[in-house]
Structures are given as C-alpha cells and as structure tokens.
Amino acid sequence: MKQKDKSKREFNNSQTPSPLRDAGSAKAEDKRAAFTLSSFLRPNIASLKPYSSARDEFSGADALFFDANENPFNAPYNRYPDPYQQELKKKIGDLKGVNPKNIFLGNGSDEAIDLLFRAFCIPGKDNVVSIDPTYGMYQVCADINDVEVKRVLLTPDFELDADALLNAVNENTKMIFICSPNNPTANCFVEQEIVRVIDGFNGIVVVDEAYIDFAPDKSLLKKPVNYPNLVILQTFSKAWGVAAIRLGMAFATEEIISVLSKIKYPYNVNILTQQKALELLENEEQKQKWVDTILKEKRRLTVAFEKNPLIKKIYPSDANFLLVKVEKPVDVYNFMVDRKLIIRDRSKVALCEGCLRITVGTAEENNRLIEALKSSPL
Ligand SMILES: *Cc1c(COP(=O)(O)O)cnc(C)c1O
Predict the structure, then answer these.
(1) Distance between alpha carbon 145 and the CA centroid of its chain, in Å?
(2) Domain holding 251: CATH number?
(3) What tens digit of pLDDT does each residue of 287-320 get?
(4) Whose CB among 187, 231, 320, 329 lies 3.0–4.6 Å from 347's, allowing a Cys bridge?
C-alpha cells in the first residue's frame, strides 16, 4: 500500500480514502503506516484556531499574574487551573507507562466521546459503527451531533464479530465504537478480534475500557504496538471510586490527542478534580484493595445467585457488575425497588431479554441484596 503524502494537507472530504483497508496480503504494519488522520478530520476542525488562554502564554513559577482578570485573593482557587493538567498527566503517564503527550483528560470519558464526534463526524452526513448492545452514551452523543449510528449485534453469546463490524462500514463511516469489558454484557472481547477491526478500518476505532481495572490483563493499553487509529478510553469513575469528580482519560497518538486538546473547553478539568486525582494517585494500593474486595464480593454474589432458582443464568463478568437472566425481569426489578434495592433493568436491550444488571456493592449491601432475592415469592 502506498504511503500518503503527509505534506499535502487536503481537507476536501471528497478525497477521503477507502473506508476499509486492503484486506489482502499487505502487512498490518504497512496498513498502519498508511493511516492519515488529516483525511478524517472535519475541515472546520482542521483549520480551527483554538482559544488562547492567558495561562497558555505563561505559566512560570513565582510570577505575578495581571493577565487573566482573576481575583487576587482566595488562593489557590482564585486562579484558572492548568488547561493541560500537566502534573496530573505526568502522574497518570508514570502509572500507566504512557507518555503524557498521548493522554487527554476530560470531564468524564463522556467528554472525550463527545469531542471525538465533534472532531471527526460531519453532522447530517457522517456515521459511526457501534456494537449492540453497549453503553448508551455513544448513541446519545451521536444524536446530539446529528450523526447516524449503525448498530451491529454481538453474537448471541456476546462475542465481537469483526467481519460484521467491518461490513457495516461505508464511505461516510468515521469511527467504530467497541466497549471492552462491555456494558451491559460484562465481558471482554477477544483481543485478536478487536485488533482485526483496528487493522481493517481506515478510520478511528474507540475502545472504551471503563471497567478494565477489573480485568487489567485484557487492556490494549499495555501493548507496545502503536496503532495510529486507536483511541482507548478509561475513567476514574469506577475502580478509582470517584465518579463524582468527573475525570476521564483518552489514550491515543499525539496527533489525535492534540486534536481533542484543541477543541475542548480551555479549563475542562477543574482544580478540585485535579487535586483530588493527584491525591488518589499517591495511593494506588487503595484502589487495588477496592478492586480485590469487589472481585471477591462478585464471586460471593455469583455463588449466591447460582443457588437462587429465580436466576436462570449468570453471564461471565470481567467487570464490577453481573448480568443475570430471570424469567420475569420487570417483576423482580419492582420487587427489589419496593425494598429500596435499585438494580438495572436491561431486559429491553438487544440480546438481553430477561436480563438485569447488578453492580457489586459492599459485603453488607450484597447481603441485603442476596436476602431480598431469596425472599422473593416470584
Ligand atoms: C461508566 C462508564 C463510563 C464512565 O464514563 P465517565 O464519563 O468517565 O464517568 C464510560 N464508559 C462506559 C462503558 C461506562 O460504563
């Protein structure tokens, strides 16, 4: 496959290359080298001159700031925060073995999802391909941005079918969304199958690893291979225990990260969030202890559910929740709600007939859940 001339920046959309990469004999590395981001960027984003904040221009220590019309009192909250969260990115980079230049931080991973749509998809024209069932935010962000989602069903046992995903791609497909471990099905996908999608698609592949701390061996992030078209999403909302501070991460090539950084709100991660995250990162063992406890509790819940005749099936889980099948999901859900035990009814979701999604709680919380399910007359 011929290398594209990178010096020629053509943002005319009619020049978009074929959406599928040559499935022939070309080596995966050659195909990766042939990927050119510029042909996937929206023209208005490619030519955008980003807002230049006062703190962009100077951020040296012990300077006196008369540049941003801030209040001189009430330090440190009086000052605008670092727009690039450099200290935080360095800490996260150290922890994950990633260069800070390959990290984007946002107001939850939801911000990264939205920015990806805004960077790559022309409203009313472009589309994305997504597995189904999966996390609801991809569809919501697509709808807000007036972008069509082509949904491709997982196999009946919730596996990823790379060929089916690639078959759904057309000339206006800009991104493919994969979530692994997947929400609500709870399983990770076979890595070779994900890589086949990444190598076979001439566009952005987003792999959402929100639950990967519960199955760290299955992360794509630790791989030495650098995929030019891969964006990995992770979050502080699950294993790190701080859904409330809203902090999500995206890992990708420097080129993709610089696009996201260019179009984000200048101060998208506030100082309270940055400080709290830095504090958490000082104590990774705490997160690990939570993960271990949650996994132990998940096994205990599984054993209890296996003994419960109400539960017909427990799906394999790589996450901090269990997807279970029951005969009357709505009745079970309502029975639990009446006892102030709130679970998630997923029975109307594709392939999930009869399914309820149950998050693993503390030992005491899980005991109440187990007892209530046992006492159900259903
Ligand atoms: C919970 C979850 C997230 C987290 O989103 P944040 O905005 O970071 O809180 C992302 N993706 C999936 C699939 C999730 O289930």
Answers:
(1) 18
(2) 3.40.640.10
(3) 999 999 999 999 999 999 999 999 999 999 999 9
(4) 329
